Amino acid sequence: MPAITVGDALTLPSIGEVLPQARERDVVSVTTAPSGYEGEGFPVRRAFAGVDLAELDPFIHMDQMGEVEYAPGEPKGTPWHPHRGFETVTYMLDGVFRHQDSHGGGGLITNGDTQWMTAGAGLLHIEEPPEEIVMKGGLFHGIQLWVNLPSQLKMATPRYQDIRGGEVALLRSPDGGAYLRLIAGEIAGHAGPGTTHTPITVSHATLSPGAQLRVPWRPDFNALVYVLAGSGTVGIDGRPVSSGQLAVFGPGDVVSLGADRIQESRSPELEVLLLGGRPIREPIAAYGPFVMNTRDEVRQAFEDFQAGRFGTIPAEDRPGHDVL
User: Fold this and answer.
1) How far apart are CA 117 and CA 101, in angstroms?
2) Which of 4, 25, 74, 83 is the least crowded, having the fewest Cβ atoms under 10 Å away?
């Protein structure tokens, strides 16, 4: 799991010590992501399955894509399909993925890169490994997160952000036992490069065996920790977590976690995603690729898609692809 590694974490800016009066967040729940398949058949773990949307708000859905070692000819993606009413955040840990949309956004992302797509009023897009990766196979591992948009921004003009791994803010715990890659939002006065419509924080943290991490967290944000690899504990009470589990925290100012002293050889460190955002607290009507506020708006999205109002597939990509 390379995704931007750090030789000596002590050379990075520190998030500082948490203030004594800061309130620790309790762990509300720990759930285990079930496995499934997406698109043309690549394996995923449904990170938010079984969790109330009210606790996830402003997030809607998250898949851990892989980790899988493909043989030549096996890599798969998704065909052209529509979206409206939210944003997708695709973060690659290992491998290469191609994105293209009907508004001209797209490109390749690899270790540590992020593609941030605001579907807004609607677009078509495709995600797939490039042809050379299909031919030779290889390791594939990534995350796709769906971020809701408030009602006044659901019909915003689509946009695309390409965030290279080298652009993220790199931070460390005070003792250097953990470091963070800040993709979007703010932690301890440090800002990530992602521009967000909905106020959120997205960060990937790595903890050495036995390390502890206490992260100051905005009290108006919710707080989620998803374990990508390894084992450890979350919350002030040290609730056990391991790969594929999601911890939901209650209110407070600090998110605490720790890495077990003994890790599996396949996952020598604890790797987690830290997510949080200001809840939108609006009704959600979601169906497939459309996330709106009412069922009428979802029906309108289907009608607009069928009428060709989401853009057109580039001519060179039409053969062999069917829009869902």
Assistant:
1) 9
2) 74
